[in-house]
Every structure is written in C-alpha cells, then in structure tokens.
Amino acid sequence: MGTLQTGSITGSLLGPILGGVLADSLGYATSFKWTSISIFISDLLVIFTKEFRIEANKNTKSQYTSKVQAPYLL
After folding, report:
1. What is the pLDDT of residues 31-69, one digit of tens each?
2. DSSP readout, 17-66?
3. What span, in angstroms and rounded, lies between the C-alpha atoms of 42 and 37?
C-alpha cells in the first residue's frame, strides 16, 4: 500500500510540473501531441501484453490469518 500511495503522490506532484515545463518549452500543441502518442502506446501495451500466471503448489496454504504469517514474511 505504501508503494501505491508513493506512486500516486509522486504522479500528482510531478505531473503538473512536467506538463508545465513541456508546455512552456514546446508549446501546447506539441505537448498534447506527444502526450497522446505516449498514452496510445501505453494503451497498446496494456491491450496486447500477455498475462503470466504462476500456479501455486498444492502442498502450501493459500490463505493466511493474522496469526499465521506467510513463509516469505518470516
């Protein structure tokens, strides 16, 4: 959760700064064009990227309570 929150705050802080720098240095039309191209490429990567699933061993627990910790957390 901390990593997700850090990414969210970082994007909220750096996004307007970078957008303002791009708009001042390149102009609005160019910055909008390059932003739309990068979003389109990201969209294609999300749509066409294959998801790999790792099967769990049948001998291990798949659910843990708050009293039992997962082996990788020890």
Report:
1. 999 889 999 999 999 999 887 777 777 776 666 666 655
2. HHHHHHHHHH-HHHHHHHHHHHHHHHHHHHHHPPPP-PPPPTTS-S---S
3. 9
